[in-house]
Amino acid sequence: MRALRTTSADITPAQAARCAAETHGLDGEPSNLDGERDQNFSLLTSSGARHVLKFVDPADSGAAAVQAAVLRHIASRDPGLPVPRILPARSGADHVRVSIAGVSRELLVIGHLAGRRWPATGAPTPSFADLGALLARLDRALEGFFDPALARELAWDVRRLPSLAAFAGEIEDSRARDAVSDAAAAFERRLNVLNGLRSQAIHGDCHAGNLLVDDTGTAVSGILDFGDMIHAPLVLEPAVSMAEGLSEGIARIGDLAALIGGFARELKLQSAEVDCLFDVIRARLAITILVQAWRRRHDPAGAGALARAAPRAEEALHRLCDAGEAALTASWHEAAGTLPARAALRKRRARFLGAGAELFYREPLQLVRGADVWMFDADGRRYLDVYNNVPHVGHAHPAVVEAIRRQAATLATNTRYLHEAILDYAEQLTSRLPAGLDACLFVNSGSEANDIAWRIAQTATGRRGALIMEHAYHGITDAVTALTPAAGGAGDPRVETLRAPDEAPDLERALAALTGRGLAPAAFFLDSALTSNGILDPRPAWAAQLGAGVRASGALVVADEVQYGLGRSGSHFWGFARRGLEPDIVTLGKPVGNGFPLGVVITRRALLEEFQARCAVFSTFGGNAVAAAAGLAVLEVLERERLMENAQTTGAYFLAKLRELVSRHRAFSAARGAGLLLGLEVVDDLGRPSKPRAQRIVDALAARHGVLTGLDGPGGNVLKLRPPMTFKREHADLAAEAIDAVASAADAAAEPA
């Protein structure tokens, strides 16, 4: 790999002078200039002209021709750019081949640029914004240039980091070694995205040693050394300069936004390019450390060239990671102007929906399209949906979309008119339920369904007390908020909670507590997935015994199937059946319409008719013909595509993958659940529930890997994995690989004691 090892300086000034005289007719006494592989000399002629003699590394065949060609290209595209100009040889050639001590080399003579090297810290320095603008101007001039030699393998090309990472064991400091390994792993995951970005010829090495400033030190007056040019993603140009500024000690992390802003001012960056900056900068710093570690053992002379830069690169790498990818990337997006729409959208959202309107993820997503198990953001990035159960049979399933379109184009009205579709849907639902659950009341959501179920129970029993599971969630209406401690509804004296899972004696305690407050239970509500309890999967005898005890107390049993209904458990079409529970009322919500608003209360006809006789209940949109069409289509797709069977086989496969991760990562303590509703418990280094670590994992899965998950459980530390029912093994593999990668970083990060 070129540039890993430096080339020894074996050409003397006298030999250089002879070559310059013979090939270009130049006189004068050359003096040495810096160079890792090429040997460079400054030559002041008797006429007062100054030139640079560049003897190209013999191992870099054709490099002189490429450098000459690119300098000609730049001169034709932007004559005012402060880059060297070619001095042709006597023969008229841009470069010539010379023989020195029996070794053949290529010689290139270029004009000397006025100025001095970038000043040290503390002296006046050019604006980083101006530097960024100059780099962009250079890249604009390089557009359209290509030579096959630019595809060479060069050690300083950040895309070589995965190969160079093999030398990590030679890094002496363990903290630096771990930081480099993390950087390499993150970069390798980013590489496919990076390689898909726009690419062109770039300078690729604009560090302080290759930049000249004017006499005041405040303006860049020259860009030198085109020997490390590559054809690569454009974003590498500013990223390399940003990384080198940190490792050379001339830039602070806060200066990087100015550089990227200046670059974007001249050459607009794409949002996906800015998203890659953090990993590319980190990769370049890691390469500096790795090359130095390798050279210390294999090329001591070359190691001297990095003696100051490598320790600074280590320090910069730590500071960069401490500053955090999300915060830095947000500042770079702001500087580059790549997310003005999203930023404006957030402000507009806060204005019209209130600043407290909840958003997922540390960096909120602007999702604009869904297809099957995938969602796409405004920039076209694809996300694997492992969280949303609303699109039960997949985002935008064509059969459901067509059913909604066809009915909406025909008639959309309420249930006070006769309509076959509504009755067909009720018939299809009740046919899948135990005998006796034979009547439906339609509303718009799971919250409304639970609200009505609670009212039916109170009407039927004449009681006001309720039994729920500890940490339960049943909705947002005023009535069921009391049944939702997970959303701040705790403390209502009418409600008593049960520990989950626990045996029947806990029911006796709860009933006694209600009696002590002068209340008797009207209903027991159970989310059959026990989602907010941490996605538990107790043996059926637990729920069966609990249900029998509830019924013996005179209360009704309400099965909340919003999470687990319609085959999600894989083993049963209804979650209550998996639990061994016999409900009096079943409530359905969001998944039944695949995103179209629909909620259903299903109970015994006698119970419903008693309620109807005593309470006037009507929902304008509940069970309208369009909702019924959506619901019917969902049931048809579930059966036709055998999605319950898929939930069982894919869920078992996914759970096995998750349990393997638990065995390998200390960030996880357990994986549980069944079908396509699984939970992965996140803990700290002492094995305690850790919501902060869990939130970081969820954010990293979305930001770095395009995998959407959520959190649930009493401590908010259980990854909730609840994808559409069309989720397949290949999707489980993608999710598990992403979780594995993020968990490796979580394991490495120290958790507070």
Topology of this protein?
Elements: H1 13-24, E1 29-33, E2 39-44, E3 50-56, H2 63-77, E4 95-100, E5 103-111, E6 116-117, H3 128-142, H4 161-164, H5 174-195, E7 199-202, E8 211-213, E9 220-223, E10 230-233, H6 236-247, H7 256-266, H8 271-298, H9 300-304, H10 309-323, H11 325-336, H12 340-353, E11 367-371, E12 374-377, E13 382-385, H13 398-408, H14 420-431, E14 439-443, H15 446-461, E15 465-469, H16 478-481, E16 495-498, H17 504-516, E17 521-527, H18 540-552, E18 556-560, H19 575-579, E19 585-588, E20 599-603, H20 605-614, H21 625-640, H22 643-664, E21 668-674, E22 677-682, H23 691-705, E23 707-708, E24 710-712, E25 718-721, H24 729-748
Parallel strand pairs: 13-23, 15-16, 15-17, 17-18, 18-19
Antiparallel strand pairs: 1-2, 2-3, 3-5, 4-5, 6-8, 7-10, 8-9, 11-12, 12-13, 14-20, 19-20, 21-22, 22-25, 24-25
Helix pairs in contact: 3-7, 5-8, 6-8, 6-10, 7-11, 8-10, 8-11, 13-21, 14-21, 15-20, 22-24, 23-24
Q: In total, how many beta strands?
A: 25
Highest CATH level, the class of the largest domain: Alpha Beta
Helix and strand content put the structural class at alpha+beta
Tally of individual domains? 4
Termini gap: 44 Å
In percent, how helical is the residue content?
Answer: 40-55%
Low-confidence region ranges: none
* Rg, Å, rounded: 34 Å
How many individual helices? Answer: 24
- CATH architecture identity of the largest domain: 3-Layer(aba) Sandwich
Average predicted local confidence, pLDDT:
91
CATH superfamily of the largest domain: Type I PLP-dependent aspartate aminotransferase-like (Major domain)
